[in-house]
Amino acid sequence: MEGERKQDWWKNTVVYQIYPRSFQDSNGDGIGDLPGIVSRLDYLKELGIGAVWLSPVCRSPQADNGYDISDYQDIDPLFGTLGDMDTLIKEAEKRGIRIILDLVLNHSSNQHPWFLEAKKSKENPYHDYYIWRDGKEGCPPNDMRGVFGGSAWEWVPEIGQYYFHQFTVEQPDLNWENPRVREDIYKMINWWMDRGIGGFRLDVLDQIAKEPDKKITRNGPMLHTYIKELSSRTFQRGDLITVGEAWGATIENAPVYSNPDGSEVSMVFQFEHINLDQQPDGEKWDLAPLDLVKLKAILEKWQKGLYQKGWNSLFWDNHDLPRIVSRWGNDKEYRTESAKMLATILHGMQGTPYIYQGEELGMTNVKLSMEQYQDVETLNMYKERKERGYSTESIMQSLYAKSRDNARTPMQWDDSENAGFTAGTPWLPVNPNYIEINAASQTGDPDSVFSYYKTLVGLRKEYEILAEGDFQLIYREDPDIFAYVRTLGNQKLLVLANFHGTKVPFTVPAEFDSQGEKGGIRTLIRNYPDREPGILRPYEAFMIFAEL
Ligand code: GLC
Ligand code: CA
């Protein structure tokens, strides 16, 4: 139709997130790198994903594992060279995979040449690339705190001013009010687009329009003006997937970010379902019991709220979050069943699913000793909570549940030393369960978690109803069952799961009763070999398709 946008390729694909540091080391220094990723592309091709999001690989002092960038147009030597990046883009393309770069635009590293200039003097042309306020030494402009602890203001004696940083001291916030900052950013993004990058993940996108004088960090008044300008000057030139990380996304503002007219980004990561295990007034470390009825209500709200008004991203895991099978599943006796169950529910919804490396193997959380943890947020939290008088025991319980290092232990490739991740000493210990949980033992096994994910990825390409069907939650108040029906024309899809490790009485609704696979009704996937009439077994899940 005239003027209508062509079908966006990212609506029928699944994205795989790689945390490069922990994926595959190629040179024995214990740190994953780009040549390592290239050597594993066939594994990703087999899984069937259409794009890979790489956590940051640009030049960085690594104060926050690359989320502190000192050169946006170069690769950090830890990970390789620009030449290696070109190779990765080319080799991935041969396998039908696009590369998504992680753009950290809210802040740079304090070692970025812009910041080094900015702190030379107030007259320096780069001074206004950052956010400076007078205050008095020892007395910051206000009491704002950084996300990883401490004041959000840092004093620079040479200048006699404070600079603003929402994250660590090494991550000064860029000043988006300054048009020269924005122009430099657009130039950089266009340069990456010309190199063949297939999309961007925008780090803390909702925080770029901060107004520290009003203590505003997320969803600042200028936010959507900035994003529209950014998008029109860069992304709209190409056929990209763009996804903004937005802890401040709500069902009211998400349709603005992900407007189908393409004026901002393809979609955002929202975190309402992720925050469910946190005490309402607490920090992420203050755990609350999980409540399935609440989870269902939140996901229903997003499914219905963005239908034909925007686009959802679907994810359980990323490099900042604990492993889903250890969170909502059972990472011991029902690890395989619960990993598959959680995948079924996520991949049955409308939106673009994301798989975080190792999730497709059912990788679990880890318990490290305090000396082994590496993550800056974890280390800061430990220090702060110690000072505030928390017991070591309670701190460790929070870290076992929520430390970002849970997601960052090396990828478990096989049962050889260090799980095949490195010939050297891994930068973060490998989870000792790699002997049992690893890719080599799963890729050829039709009953493995890996094969299950592979099937799900394939279904999304094959069944339009997964991308386009509407969403109807059923059994809303049931404390054990998560079930919904997708509808598209005369097709229906039932996605159903027992979220718990107990048996639950249950009868399949007549219109989906596929015992014997009657004409027009078929089971697309299930995590038990058969069905037991009248009952759902622990973590049992399936999808039934019906054509009426
Ligand atoms: C995002 C990233 C996280 C990082 C932070 C600061 O939340 O996902 O890893 O520490 O932004 O850049
Ligand atoms: Ca390496």
Write the layout of secondary structure elements.
Blueprint: E1 15-18, H1 34-39, H2 41-47, E2 51-54, E3 58-59, E4 71-75, H3 82-94, E5 98-103, H4 113-118, E6 132-133, E7 153-156, E8 161-164, H5 179-194, E9 199-202, H6 223-233, E10 241-245, H7 254-257, E11 267-269, H8 292-305, E12 313-314, H9 324-327, H10 335-347, E13 352-356, H11 376-387, H12 392-402, H13 405-408, H14 439-442, H15 449-462, H16 464-468, E14 470-474, E15 481-488, E16 491-498, E17 504-505, E18 521-526, E19 535-536, E20 541-547
Parallel strand pairs: 1-2, 1-13, 2-5, 5-9, 9-10, 10-11, 12-13
Antiparallel strand pairs: 3-4, 6-8, 7-8, 14-15, 15-16, 16-20, 17-19, 18-20
Helix pairs in contact: 10-15
Bound molecules: alpha-D-glucopyranose and calcium ion.
Binned, the helix content reads 25-40%
Radius of gyration: 23 Å
- The low-pLDDT segments are 1-5
**The biggest beta sheet, please?**
8 strands, parallel
Instruction: Determine the mean pLDDT.
Output: 96
How many strands appear in the DSSP assignment? 20
